[in-house]
Amino acid sequence: MDNQWKRFIKGESVESEVTPTIYRSWQRSLEYHVDHTLVSNQDILTTSRLSERRDSQESLIRASEPVLPYIFNLLGSNNYTVLLGDNDGYIIEAVGDTHFMSKAQKVNLSPGASWREEIRGTNAIGTALRDNSPISVFGWEHFVHDNHFLACWAAPIQNSQGIPLGVLDISGEANPDRQKILNIAMMGASMIEKNLRLFELENQLKFYQEGSKLASSLLQQGFLAIDHNGIITNINAYGAGLLGRRQEEIIGQPAGDVFSTPKGWMLNGHSLNLHLKDRSGKEITSHLNQVVNNSGKTLGAVGTLNISKATSLSNTMWIGNSVLSQRMLARVSKIASTRSSVLINGESGTGKEIISRTIHQLSSRSEGPFVALNCASLPATLIESELFGYVDGAFTGARRGGKPGKFELANNGTIFLDEIGDMPLNVQVALLRVLQEKEVSRIGDTKALKIDVRVIAATHKDLSVLVTEEKFRLDLYYRLKVITLELPPLRERTEDIPDLVRYFIDKTCNSLELPLLGIQEEVFSYLSSHSWPGNVRELENCIESMVALAEGPVLTVEDLPDEIRQSLQNKSVTKAEPLLNQQTKQAILYALNQTNGKIAPAAKLLGIGRNTLYRKMKDLGVNI
Ligand SMILES: Nc1ncnc2c1ncn2[C@@H]1O[C@H](COP(=O)(O)OP(=O)(O)OP(=O)(O)O)[C@@H](O)[C@H]1O
């Protein structure tokens, strides 16, 4: 039976008696000087090299994992082994019957061995890979005599360009139904190819998804996706921030529930507009374009989410969604529905004025005026006339025709008295009278004018201490603190920082007519680690200068002021108070010198508010 092989080895011509594929492979085996008498022990990987090779072929192994046992079961007999070879002919996986596998092992037909033609002569694995075509190699068709007990079928596993990535082999003892088993091998190879394509698609999809996730997170605009059932399938962090909620609270919700008031859905040809107005008057609009597939079926809609221009730059909007902010806003809306006086306590720049405006706007007086007066910014002698006004000739220097006071101007609305702790005692008496009698008389006038004004007072000082020091009247204190509201400093609600920063970037870019700048995520950790003694005002000034001086389209750590860039390292360093005071005093004097003693520009130069500057000047004994 092995006559043809014997005669070929002797050098006789047998070309017409064997299939051309086998004949060509025998000839190549001769050229490779393969020893036809002996099983080669060459090119067998050590266990560690084999596991490295398996690692490098991870997707081929994963794709064949369910296929090899399936093919083995399909063969319906134990006299086979199903092998996976890589593109170098190394066997990297085997499933089969232990009895046959131990026989196969004797000729190195087992994991770790390479069955390239160059090493083992004609064989199904090596020849299928060499010809990139399915093949069966039976008995004496193997070039090496010791392999003549084998019957093998192999089919290459190709990528989508037809390049062989590996090979699926079925080996056993000779079987008469040569074509049937070859078909099974080909089917196995094609199943592995399909799995590989699926992985490729999964990877591509993941790549696109990751890409779009990154793009939407970098987007300094809200991004929203809604499926054809109206369910929100994606919203970026910025968009969620605009809605004052977290991404995970919104994704999966019906869009109609999230955008409930006042206008809801508006379908308009191929686009869709959504509106939302929240408690503080912030209005959000979303413009979405429908996405359709090739057959015109609507898959959903994607688009942007913005604060509508009309309200985006209003200075009455409270930005921040931390637990503390939420708690405070809930209290503010309750306060707004009452008529009582309010006393707001909070450090400078925490938003006392903005929250007073919010109370006014949410109240039934919102159509009336909101009038603010800072008691620390005026000399004691002027406060009274500012508050109550005066008649013609009331005092030397009085304006001809007189002047209405802030109370008169605030009639039917709200008066906001900032830094009330700095109000002189004599004015406190007059204020108390106005509050009790609900009428005001201009200085020098005998007539009283009925007024209906809600008073919101604010201070960064502890008024009860001022009362014990007899700098503040107890009766006025009680009159004002009917309702109190504590504004937490920014360092206690650092979760608000990202929203505030994005808002200030938007606001500054708008006012400087610059294209909207992005911000590197890392910047937030620096901003959150700073203690912000000047609170939101200091943060606002910091962002304004970062935007104005920005080098590129995205604000980075490099754009941060030095002291904030160093704040992460300096957090543990204790402050040397007296030195700090000295330096603050010097900075104030320098700024005043630069601005010829003008308060507003000096405050701007220092990056603090006017009121803070007045207060610091008072505390540090700086006079102009
Ligand atoms: N939550 C906030 N959202 C948006 N802007 C804010 C917020 N809090 C403060 N600001 C901004 O910070 C700046 C300071 O706020 P505001 O004047 O209300 O603080 P304040 O507590 O009254 O300060 P001061 O006591 O020094 O007068 C303002 O420009 C204000 O618009």
CATH fold-level label of the largest domain: Beta-Lactamase
Estimate the mean pLDDT confidence: 85
Estimate percent helicity: 40-55%
Say how many strands there are: 22
Q: Profile the largest sheet.
A: 6 strands, antiparallel
Cα(first) to Cα(last) distance is 119 Å
- Tell me the number of structural domains: 4
Low-confidence spans: 261-269, 309-315, 571-577
Output the CATH class name of the largest domain: Alpha Beta
Q: How many helical stretches?
A: 28
Q: Structural class given helices, strands, pairing?
A: alpha+beta
Question: What name goes with the CATH superfamily of the largest domain?
Answer: GAF domain
Protein name: Transcriptional activator of acetoin/glycerol metabolism
InterPro entries: AAA+_ATPase (IPR003593), AAA_lid_NorR (IPR058031), GAF-like_dom_sf (IPR029016), Homeodomain-like_sf (IPR009057), HTH_Fis (IPR002197), P-loop_NTPase (IPR027417), PAS (IPR000014), PAS-like_dom_sf (IPR035965)
GO molecular function: ATP binding; sequence-specific DNA binding
Domain Sigma-54 factor interaction: 318-548
Quick structural gist:
One of its GO terms (biological process) is regulation of DNA-templated transcription. This protein is 44% helix and 18% strand. The protein is α+β, with helices and mostly antiparallel strands and 624 residues long.
